[in-house]
C-alpha cells in the first residue's frame, strides 16, 4: 500500500490503516544512523518546534469563548462535523486540528472539571504530531494525552495509551473515560489477568489503555497467529476456508501509540528482550537443579569461581572446573553431568542463583511461587521468568515447586516493537538528556514543554553515612522530627528488603507508618491516598515513583508540603528525580533530600576505589564525585547494552530478511 503523509501533514508518515497496520523495521547504514543521532540533538534544542506548538496552543485557547457558548449536544456535533476532515488526513488542515483540540478542552472542563492549561495543550499537540514530549513531573500528563487520543480516534486510528503497569492503566482509563464517552468513543483497559477474549474486546475499543509488557506480549501472540506476516484479512479468509481454523488476532494493528513514562519503557526496560514461551514437561528437572545447587555450595570463592558483580556474571576457575568434575563423579551423577559444557553451565547458573539473586531484592516468594520484581517500577511481574534454567534454579533454592523448562515461541525487544508503530509519541519528565537516543532508535524528536507554575520544591541535598545501620538510624531521626512537626514523609527505597529494614527501624522508634512494596501492593490506592495527610509516614519502593500522585491537603501545604527522602541512589539519576517529583507538584510547596550509605550497592559495584577514598576523606567534593561517577558509569554501561541490542536487532533483521520474520 503506498505511503501517505501523517495525519493532517504532521509527524511520522502513515500508510493509513492497513489490515494489520504496522511499519516495517527501518534500516540504515552507519552514516545515516550517526546523522540521525546528531539531528535529534539539534532538533530538540531548536526553538522553532516549541514556538510552533505555542502558536497553535494559543489558537486553541482563543476558541474557548466560542466553544463555551455551545450546549453539550452542539459541542458533540461540532466535533463530529470535523470528523470527515480528520479522516481525510489532508496536509496542512490546521484549522480542523485546532478546532478539534478546542472541543476536547471544553468537554474536559464539563465532564472532568479540568480545563487543559496552555502547556498541556502544547504537550498534546506534540503527542499528536508524533513527538517525544518532556513535561515536568506533576504537570498533568494523564490529562495532556486526552486531546491527542480523542482526535486520533475521531480520525479512525485505534489508539494505544501505554503505561508502565496495570495499576496506572486502570487508574488513567477510569479517570478519563467520561471525557472519551462524551464524544461517543469507547475505552478498553488491558489487565494481566484477562482471558484472550476479554483482551480482544478491549483492543476493539477506540482507545485502549495497556501496560507496555501486556501490549508487547499480545503483539507476539498475534505474530505467531499471523505466521508469515499475513494481513488480518488474509488470516480471516484462511480461517473461513479451513472451517474456522486459526487463532483470532488480539490487536487491530499498530496505528498510534502514546507512551507515558517513555524513558522507562524505551530506555530502562529496553535492555532485556521480551520472550513468549511455553513450558516443557521435564519431570527430572527438580532433581537436576537440586544436585546443581548442592555442588555449587561445595565450591569456594575465589579458588573455584569468581563473581563479577558489576556485570552480574559468574566464572569458574580451572581449579573449580576440575573440582566440579571430581565431585559430580563422586556423587555418581550422570546424564547432563557427563557433558562438560552442560555441567559447567549448570554450575554457573546455580552459583548465580546463590550469590547474585536475593529474595526481597530481585524477586519475592509469593503464593508458593518465585516472582520477579521489576527493578525500575518496584512491581511484581507474575508472568515473567529468567532464562536458561536460572528461574528454576532459584525455585529449587527457595524450596518451592520447580516449574518446567521454558521453550521460546517468539521474542522481540521494545526497540524493535515500538519502531513498528505507524505513529509513535511519548511523554516523560526526563527526556532531554535522552533526545539523541530517542531520535536514533525511534525517530522521535524531543520537545521540552515549559512548566505551568514555577517549581517551589526545596532541595536539601544529600547526607552520606558510613554504612547501612547508620543510614536507617539517620532516616529514623529525620522522620521523627518531621512527623513531630506534622509533615507527611515519603521514604523511597530500592528494594523490598530495604523497605522492610526501614520499616523495622521505624517500628522500633514507635513511628506509625505504611509500607508499599511488591509484597504489599494490593492496597496501593488506599496507601497513596493517605500518604499526603498530616503526619503520614510512607515507606515505598519504586512503586511510588512513576505516575503516583500524592495530594497533600491545605493544612499540610501550610506546613511546607510533602517531604521526600531518598535512601539509595539509583543507577540512573532520572529515577532519583522521579521519586523527588512526587512532591512540589503543580507549583505546590515541598522538599526533598537523600540519606545514603557509602556501602550502598551503586558505590560498591561501580566505583569501589572512589568509595574507599570517600571513607578515608569524607569531604563533600569527593562524596558528590562518588555519586556522579557511579551513576555515570552505570548509565554508560546500560547505554552500551542498549546500543548493542539495537545493532543486534538490525543485524538479525538484515540476516533473516530472505527467510521470513524473526519473531
TrEMBL record:
Keywords: ATP-binding, Cell inner membrane, Cell membrane, Cytoplasm, Membrane, Nucleotide-binding, Protein transport, Translocase, Translocation, Transport. Monomer and homodimer. Part of the essential Sec protein translocation apparatus which comprises SecA, SecYEG and auxiliary proteins SecDF-YajC and YidC. Its main location: membrane. It holds the Pfam family P-loop_SecA. One of its GO terms (biological process) is intracellular protein transmembrane transport. It is found in: Cell membrane; Cytoplasm. Its EC number is 7.4.2.8. Residues 122-298 form the Helicase ATP-binding domain. ATP binds at residues 120, 138-142, 549. Residues 35-627 form the SecA family profile domain. It catalyses: ATP + H2O + cellular proteinSide 1 = ADP + phosphate + cellular proteinSide 2. InterPro entries: Helicase_ATP-bd, Helicase_C-like, P-loop_NTPase, SecA, SecA_DEAD, SecA_motor_DEAD, SecA_preprotein_X-link_dom, SecA_SF2_C. Belongs to the SecA family. It is an enzyme of class 7 (translocase). One of its GO terms (cellular component) is cytosol. This is Protein translocase subunit SecA. GO terms for molecular function: ATP binding; protein-exporting ATPase activity. PANTHER family: CHLOROPLAST PROTEIN-TRANSPORTING ATPASE (PTHR30612:SF0), SECA INNER MEMBRANE COMPONENT OF SEC PROTEIN SECRETION SYSTEM (PTHR30612). It is a peripheral membrane protein. Residues 474-641 form the Helicase C-terminal domain.
Amino acid at each position: 500500500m503506498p505511503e501517505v503523509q501523517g495525519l493532517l501533514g504532521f509527524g511520522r508518515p502513515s500508510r493509513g490503516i492497513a489490515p494489520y497496520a504496522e511499519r516495517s523495521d527501518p534500516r540504515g547504514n552507519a552514516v545515516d544512523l550517526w546523522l540521525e543521532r546528531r539531528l535529534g540533538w539539534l532538533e530538540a534544542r531548536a526553538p522553532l518546534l516549541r514556538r510552533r506548538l505555542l502558536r497553535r496552543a494559543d489558537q486553541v485557547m482563543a476558541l474557548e469563548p466560542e466553544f463555551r457558548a455551545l450546549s453539550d449536544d452542539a459541542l458533540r456535533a461540532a466535533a463530529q462535523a470535523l470528523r470527515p476532515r480528520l479522516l481525510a488526513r489532508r496536509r496542512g488542515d490546521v484549522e480542523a486540528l485546532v478546532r478539534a483540540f478546542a472541543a476536547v478542552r471544553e468537554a474536559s472542563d464539563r465532564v472532568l472539571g479540568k480545563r487543559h492549561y496552555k502547556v498541556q495543550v502544547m504537550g498534546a499537540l506534540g503527542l499528536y504530531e508524533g513527538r517525544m514530549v518532556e513535561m515536568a513531573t506533576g504537570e498533568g500528563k494523564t490529562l495532556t494525552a486526552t486531546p491527542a487520543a480523542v482526535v486520533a480516534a475521531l480520525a479512525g486510528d485505534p489508539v494505544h495509551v501505554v503505561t508502565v503497569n496495570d495499576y496506572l492503566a486502570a487508574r488513567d482509563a477510569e479517570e478519563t473515560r467520561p471525557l472519551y464517552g462524551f464524544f461517543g468513543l469507547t475505552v478498553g483497559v488491558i489487565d494481566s489477568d484477562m482471558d484472550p477474549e476479554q483482551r480482544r474486546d478491549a483492543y476493539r475499543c477506540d482507545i485502549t489503555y495497556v501496560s507496555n509488557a501486556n501490549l508487547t506480549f499480545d503483539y507476539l501472540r498475534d505474530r505467531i497467529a499471523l505466521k508469515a506476516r499475513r494481513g488480518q484479512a488474509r488470516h480471516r479468509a484462511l480461517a473461513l476456508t479451513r472451517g474456522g481454523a486459526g487463532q483470532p488476532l488480539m490487536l487491530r494493528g499498530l496505528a498510534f501509540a502514546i507512551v507515558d513514562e517513555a524513558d522507562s519503557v524505551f530506555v530502562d526496560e529496553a535492555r532485556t528482550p521480551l520472550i513468549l514461551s511455553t513450558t516443557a514437561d521435564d519431570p527430572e528437572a527438580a532433581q537436576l537443579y537440586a544436585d546443581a545447587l548442592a555442588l555449587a555450595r561445595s565450591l569456594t570463592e575465589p579458588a573455584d569461581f569468581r563473581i563479577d558483580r558489576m556485570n552480574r556474571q559468574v566464572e569458574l576457575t580451572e581449579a573449580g572446573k576440575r573440582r566440579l568434575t571430581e565431585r559430580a563423579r563422586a556423587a555418581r551423577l550422570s546424564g547432563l553431568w557427563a557433558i562438560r559444557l552442560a555441567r559447567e553451565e549448570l554450575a554457573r547458573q546455580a552459583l548465580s542463583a546463590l550469590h547474585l539473586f536475593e529474595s526481597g531484592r530481585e524477586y519475592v516468594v509469593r503464593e508458593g511461587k518465585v516472582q520477579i520484581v521489576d527493578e525500575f517500577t518496584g512491581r511484581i511481574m507474575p508472568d515473567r521468568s529468567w532464562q536458561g534454567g536460572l528461574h528454576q534454579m532459584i525455585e529449587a533454592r527457595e524450596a518451592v515447586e520447580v516449574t518446567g523448562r521454558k521453550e521460546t515461541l517468539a521474542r522481540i525487544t521494545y526497540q524493535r516493537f515500538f519502531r513498528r508503530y505507524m505513529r509513535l509519541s511519548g511523554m516523560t519528565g526526563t527526556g532531554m538528556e535522552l533526545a539523541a537516543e530517542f531520535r536514533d532508535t525511534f525517530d522521535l524528536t524531543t520537545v521540552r514543554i515549559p512548566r505551568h507554575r514555577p517549581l517551589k520544591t526545596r532541595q536539601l541535598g544529600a547526607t552520606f553515612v558510613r554504612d547501612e545501620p547508620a543510614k536507617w538510624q539517620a532516616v529514623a531521626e529525620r522522620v521523627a522530627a518531621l512527623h513531630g512537626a506534622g509533615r507527611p514523609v515519603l521514604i523511597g527505597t530500592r528494594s523490598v528488603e530495604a523497605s522492610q529494614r526501614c520499616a523495622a527501624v521505624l517500628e522500633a522508634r514507635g513511628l506509625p507508618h505504611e509500607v508499599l512494596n511488591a509484597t504489599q501492593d494490593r492496597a496501593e490506592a488506599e496507601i497513596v491516598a493517605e500518604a499526603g495527610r498530616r503526619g503520614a509516614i510512607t515507606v515505598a519502593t519504586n512503586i511510588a515513583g512513576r505516575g503516583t500522585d500524592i495530594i497533600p491537603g491545605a493544612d499540610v501545604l501550610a506546613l511546607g508540603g510533602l517531604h521526600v527522602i531518598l535512601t539509595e541512589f539509583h543507577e540512573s539519576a532520572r529515577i532519583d528525580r522521579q521519586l523527588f517529583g512526587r512532591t512540589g507538584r503543580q507549583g505546590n510547596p515541598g522538599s526533598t533530600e537523600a540519606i545514603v550509605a557509602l556501602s550502598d550497592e551503586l558505590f560498591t559495584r561501580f566505583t569501589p576505589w572512589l568509595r574507599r577514598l570517600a571513607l578515608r576523606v569524607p569531604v563533600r567534593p569527593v562524596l558528590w564525585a562518588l555519586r556522579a561517577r557511579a551513576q555515570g558509569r552505570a548509565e554508560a554501561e546500560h547505554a552500551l547494552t542498549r546500543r548493542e541490542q539495537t545493532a543486534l536487532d538490525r543485524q538479525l533483521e538484515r540476516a533473516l530478511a530472505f527467510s521470513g520474520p524473526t519473531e
